[in-house]
Every structure is written in C-alpha cells, then in structure tokens.
Design a protein that fits this description.
alpha+beta, OB fold (Dihydrolipoamide Acetyltransferase, E2P), five-stranded mixed β-barrel
C-alpha cells in the first residue's frame, strides 16, 4: 500500500537525486515502466510520483505540451491533470529521460491513457516535436472543432507553449501599441469599469491587475470576455 497522507504540492521539486535517479532508470531500463502514487501536480504536463520504496520521481507526460504558468488556461490544465491522476496509482511507460532528469512517459491508470485524455479534453496541445501519434492529432482536431478546453479561448490567447517560452505572446505589436495609447494602467481596477474585453485584457496582461481574473484561467472579466 502507498501512503495516502501526501497533499497536493503544485510546484514540488523532485527529491530523487540525479545519481539515484539514473540508477533507477538503469535498473529498470528505459522503455520499461515505473509505478507509484501521484503526490504532486506541477502543471498540466508534469507531476511527482511516489514509488513503493518511497522515492519521489518527477514525471513529464509524453507527447503533450500544456500551457505555461501565466498563459491562459494554465490553471485549468493543471486541474484537469489533477482530476485524472492526483492521489491515484499510475503506471508510467518510460520513453526517455530528459535533460532535467525527468522521466518522460505516458501514464496510465488501468486502461486510461492520460496523454490521450489531456488531448481529448482540450487541456493540452500535441507536442509536435515529440509525437507522431496519429490518434492524438485526430483527437486534437476534434477538440478544436468542438471548442473544448483551451480551444474555447480566443485565437490570440491560444499561443502554443513552445512559442510562449520564446516570448511569442500572441498579439501583434501594432495591437500592443494601439492599446498602450488607448489604455492607461492605474486608471481602472474593476471589471465593472471596463468597456470592452480588449480593455480588460490590457489591464490584466499589461498592468498585472490579477483581480480581473478571479479563477486564474487567464481570461479577465469573464461575463464580458466569454
């Protein structure tokens, strides 16, 4: 039995030293499986696994890329992964060990493939660089067509995480310049004062007015911006 007393630690660091980690991987061999209890969720594609011998291993869900912190839908993506696997026993079918010493693999619970479910629900993108799974691309197209999850966001908020990490945040420079001239940080503080969704987005993203995004999904003043 795995201990069930762990709490959800959303940004917990992996506690398994690199040398011990590599020993574990060598002993099981890559392309094998590691099993354990999920005790931490970092974001929509990374979690911490507690093995039966009490070692914590950071796992990167293979073939998907979830929104980064600060991106629209990041919290909902993390919650979706938590709903699927937190405090549950999973088996991770190892594909590789990445440069951050994370096991990269596809987690399963019984017959449920977590990678598939994250794409099916629109909680993550197929990671183009690392996946040639035709099923995942088909599921992503369906999620997009039906507006599930992040596919329900406005197009300029659907910046792929690999672009976001390189500073490509969606709106054109002309739009940003126009906003800077039209809106002014400090002029307003509440949703009831906003006259458009564009204005609300400016105050959230440019001015950092987090109160406009009560549920932390990256969408301000949802009655106006939905």
């Amino acid at each position: 039995m795995h201990p069930r007393t762990a709490t959800w630690a959303p940004f917990e660091k992996c506690l398994l030293p690199a040398a011990a980690f590599m020993l574990l991987v060598t002993s099981t061999s890559v392309a094998e499986t590691v099993e354990g209890l999920v005790v931490g969720i970092a974001d929509g594609d990374t979690f911490t696994l507690l093995t039966p011998d009490q070692r914590q291993i950071k796992i990167r869900v293979a073939e998907i890329d979830a929104p980064e912190r600060g991106q629209p839908f990041a919290r909902r993506s993390r919650q979706q992964l938590a709903d699927l696997i937190f405090q549950k026993d999973v088996a991770v079918h190892i594909q590789v060990v990445d440069r951050y010493n994370r096991v990269v693999g596809r987690p399963t619970i019984d017959d449920m493939d977590v990678t598939v479910e994250m794409i099916r629900s629109g909680a993550a993108w197929v990671y183009r660089t690392y996946s040639d799974d035709v099923q995942l691309y088909e599921l992503e197209r369906t999620a997009k067509t039906e507006g599930r999850g992040l596919w329900g966001l406005p197009e300029f908020d659907r910046v792929m995480p690999w672009d976001w990490r390189h500073g490509k945040h969606g709106k054109s420079s002309s739009n940003s310049a126009r906003n800077a001239k039209t809106f002014q940080c400090g002029a307003k503080t509440y949703c009831r004062e906003m006259v458009s969704c564009e204005e609300a987005r400016f105050f959230l993203k440019t001015c950092g007015l987090d109160r406009l995004d009560g549920d932390g999904d990256g969408i301000p003043c949802e009655a106006m911006c939905r």
